[in-house]
TrEMBL record:
Gene3D superfamilies linked to this entry: Carboxypeptidase-like, regulatory domain, TonB-dependent receptor, beta-barrel domain, TonB-dependent receptor, plug domain
Entry similarity comment: Belongs to the TonB-dependent receptor family.
TonB-dependent receptor plug domain span: 108-213
Official protein name in the record: TonB-dependent receptor
Species this protein is from: Pedobacter quisquiliarum
Keyword terms, alphabetized: Cell outer membrane, Ion transport, Iron, Iron transport, Membrane, Receptor, Signal, TonB box, Transmembrane, Transmembrane beta strand, Transport
InterPro entries referenced in this protein's UniProt entry, alphabetically: Beta-barrel_TonB, Beta-barrel_TonB_sf, CarboxyPept-like_regulatory, Plug_dom, Plug_dom_sf, TonB-dep_rcpt-like
Length: 809
């Protein structure tokens, strides 16, 4: 109601996109009106149309894979026709590297493309999950509360271990834990060209199975012109980001070299949750008429003060008696008790030891090659190697010598069985392998893809004591535990896309995956490990798309995915009883519409799990929580995603995900302890149709963008996440409350002082200072018939700001 309405003449712009010299239509070519937020695609005859355009000057850009892009400017004061003839590219385009694992407009798959412009506009130095926070069904969290340091992402309620991530088609998920640790690649977004998010199973890809979604990331490709950039951000919690980027552009129309250096520092919202992050990215490429060769070398180092224990509920709520009870239950020292009682309600960090840090270094090496073998056949492959090494250090009080393989100490005739100490737990790993794809375009109706990968992981886990109050018989540098993890991962897949008619497209996607996982040695609790599991998976997918016209289509698909347990599932299993692998039956159906003003889609999904692994309250013989298979669980939901250009100055973006996420039959375990701290009884409770933990029933986002003058835009962003339960009992005393958070993003771009592009941007987060928690955990126990539940939360920052100045030369 507040939007101004203008009565003015509206015109129509139409045309065709064809191949130069042959006049062959190019269906699916992208046409974009620059600086207007309007785009469309050509239909089967190569035609396009923009309607209801006011009079004025417009610049249209047209792109199509394998062809050189083209721009034309037109003055519109009546209905006009503007056609394009694209020439075959003089070199192979970078997009061929990821084409085999990407979904397209004709795919019966639920996906969202994030362009380089969107990534750049939202990149203020926060980790990549926060840049993706505005996409459907996504919930993000930050241990430090401000988006820098350890961050997490969930898609459709599935955590990072169930979200497959690839970088140029190469797996990024950790082979053992299956998680993704963005803190190891700070400011990686500054080297990303585009991202495709596939929700659900998606298309066949490399690496761990996708149970909630896939992030298919393509790094920046060739820049035609040389460039230099300096990007700087400063904001709340002394957050500082400095980035320098350089590129040669194309040298002799064949060679290019690009580089980036970044540094990010932040004190964090949570006490002492500081981050010191550094990263680099280097790329060199050769592009010929039929060949593309690219070498990427990138990596990072991080030192992050630990904030991963969260805040107990009593401290969060300022409950004085509750804190005293917490101190007594957990035998806190006088110093730790004072820290708890005197910290802020929302910023408390239980760690006070000065070197309570996580430290990690990681380097990636990628050799990417693609070749146009014939007019119809394209090959691309990659060799990759990643090495990572790091540790987290922690102070531990009153530790038993025997838990570290050490002898008790005799002092003055008295036997001392415990000591204060500082320990480091190390991970030293190597990950390497190859990926490949053959893409065959038989004709305008049929395309085939044969692809796969073979990867190996070799990881060492060990612990050291770097200081002890009483040294016992240990020596500096000794390992008190040592084990190795080895994993071989092979997959092969075949895809077929068949355009049965101009309206109907069919696809089939078949994948076979073979795994061999071994763990040997002693783990951190000094238990001997001898794990050897071999798994074979078959993952079929079929689907169809039906086009009503060039602007709209229906699609439906059915997929099966299988996923192996993670390292902890094997290591913490009771008496080497390996958990079962998980299986997912995924059905998706939806409708998409796209014209020059409106892009919208609605998707309905059903994800039926067999043997999903969840926490049940059960613990192993050393008291660690273990996941167990539940026979029958599901996710059922609907997702809506839309973008509407209201006028040349106003744009509305919105999405919503509504879901029902249930375990049909769930058994919860509660342990009762006696005066000696031993388990005296186990109480089980049956729950039927209970909610899956961390699966909000509603996630919604809305953004109103306003561009009053050239170069300036401001957007109001709103995000809503409904309540989430922290375990699978659907108990309101163990939940995260719903939250509604509003941000403002503003940017002004201009040229001055001989600088090609100056951009000044502001991100104001949580402008209404909402107090909310986006993550947490819980556990319960019984003593003398009284139940005690410990809830821990990860509060997110209140109102905070990030201001950036970016210069492009």
């Amino acid at each position: 109601m507040l939007l101004p309405l203008f009565v003015q003449a509206q015109f129509r712009l139409t045309g065709t996109v064809t191949q130069s010299g042959t006049n062959k239509p190019l269906p699916g070519a992208s046409i974009r009106i620059q600086n207007q937020g309007k785009s469309t695609q050509t239909d089967a005859s190569g035609s396009y149309a923009f309607r209801n355009l006011p009079a004025g000057n417009y610049t249209l850009s047209v792109s199509y894979l394998g062809f050189s892009a083209m721009q034309k400017t037109i003055t519109l004061n009546a209905d006009e026709s503007l056609s394009f003839e694209l020439a075959a590219a003089a070199f192979l385009a970078d997009e061929v590297i990821v084409r085999s694992t990407r979904a397209t407009e004709r795919s019966a798959t639920t996906f969202k493309n994030i362009s380089s412009a969107e990534i750049e506009a939202n990149n203020f130095g926060q980790d990549l999950p926060f840049i993706l926070n505005n996409t459907p069904g996504v919930v993000v969290t930050s241990d430090a509360g401000g988006g820098v340091g350890y961050t997490g992402i969930r898609i459709r309620g599935s955590d990072a271990t169930r979200v497959n991530v690839t970088l140029n088609g190469i797996p990024y998920n950790d082979s053992e834990s299956q998680g993704t640790f963005w803190v190891n690649m700070p400011d990686f977004a500054s080297s990303v060209d585009n991202i495709q998010i596939q929700r659900g199973v998606g298309t066949s890809t490399n690496g761990a199975g996708a149970f909630g979604g896939s992030l298919n990331i393509q790094t920046a490709g060739t820049s035609i012109d040389p460039y230099a950039e300096v990007n700087n951000t400063y904001g709340s919690f002394n957050t500082l980001k400095n980035t320098v980027k350089l590129g040669t552009g194309l040298i002799n129309n064949k060679w290019s070299f690009d580089g980036r250096l970044s540094r990010i520092k932040s004190d964090g919202f949570i006490d002492r949750a500081a981050s010191d992050l550094k990263s680099y990215f280097m790329s060199g490429g050769y592009q010929g008429e039929k060949d593309l060769l690219r070498i990427n070398v990138f990596g990072g180092s991080e030192q992050t003060y630990q904030a991963w224990n969260g805040i107990p509920e009593s401290r969060l709520k300022g409950d004085a008696q509750g804190m005293q009870d917490y101190i007594a239950r957990n035998y806190l020292s006088e110093a730790d008790a004072a820290n708890l009682l005197n910290s802020g309600n929302r910023t408390y960090n239980p760690f006070t030891y000065k070197d309570q840090t996580d430290n990690y270094w990681q380097n990636h090496y990628q050799l990417l090659y693609a070749r146009q073998l014939t007019d119809k056949l394209t090959f691309n492959g990659a060799l990759h190697y990643t090495d990572g090494r790091g540790y987290y250090e922690e102070y531990k009080a009153d530790q038993k010598f025997k838990n570290y393989g050490l002898a008790d100490v005799i002092l003055g005739g008295d036997t001392t069985t415990r000591t204060n100490l500082v320990r480091r737990r190390w991970l030293d790993n190597n990950f390497y392998g190859l990926t490949y794809n053959l893409n065959y375009q038989a004709n305008s109706k049929l395309s085939l893809t044969l692809g796969g990968a073979y990867n190996e992981y070799d990881g060492k886990h060990f612990g050291e004591i770097t200081w002890a109050q009483f040294a016992s018989n240990g020596q500096l540098g000794d390992h008190y535990y040592d084990n190795t993890g080895k994993k071989q991962d092979f997959n092969i897949f075949a895809k077929a896309n068949f355009n049965a008619t101009e309206q109907l497209s069919l696809f089939a996607d078949l994948q076979y995956r073979n795994l061999n996982y071994q763990v040997n040695g002693t783990e951190k609790n000094l238990n001997v490990l001898d794990i050897n599991d071999k798994l074979n998976f078959f993952n079929p997918k079929v689907g169809a798309s039906y086009f009503l016209n060039a602007q709209s289509n229906f699609y439906a698909s059915f997929s099966v995915a299988n996923k192996e347990p993670n390292r902890d599932d094997y290591v913490n299993a009771t008496a080497n009883l390996y958990p079962l692998s998980e299986r997912l039956y995924n059905t998706e159906a939806g409708y998409r519409f796209k014209n020059e003003q409106l892009q919208a889609g609605i998707n309905i999904y059903h994800m039926q799990y067999k043997d999903q692994l969840v926490l049940t309250g059960k613990i192993n013989d050393v008291g660690e929580s273990i996941r167990q298979n539940v026979d029958d669980s599901y996710r059922l939901g609907v997702e809506v995603d839309a973008s509407y250009t209201i006028s040349p100055k106003f744009m509305l973006n919105a999405n919503a995900a509504l879901s029902k996420n249930k375990i049909r039959n769930y058994i919860d375990y509660l342990y009762e302890y006696d005066d000696n701290g031993d388990i005296s009884n186990i109480i089980t409770t049956n729950y039927r149709n209970t909610d899956i933990s961390f699966s909000p029933a509603a996630v919604a986002f809305a953004e109103l963008a306003y561009a009053p003058v050239k170069g300036f835009a401001v957007a109001l962003q709103n995000k809503y996440v409904s309540k989430q339960f922290m375990d699978n009992t659907q108990d309101d005393t163990r939940k995260l409350d719903a939250y509604f958070v509003s941000n403002i993003r503003a940017g002004y771009t201009f040229s001055a002082w001989g600088v090609k592009k100056v951009n000044l941007s502001l991100l104001a987060n949580n402008i209404f200072d909402k107090q909310y928690e986006s993550n947490g955990y819980t556990y319960s126990s019984l003593y003398q018939g009284v139940r005690t539940t410990e809830n821990f939360y990860f509060p997110q920052a209140g109102t905070n700001f990030l201001l950036s100045l970016n210069l492009k030369f």
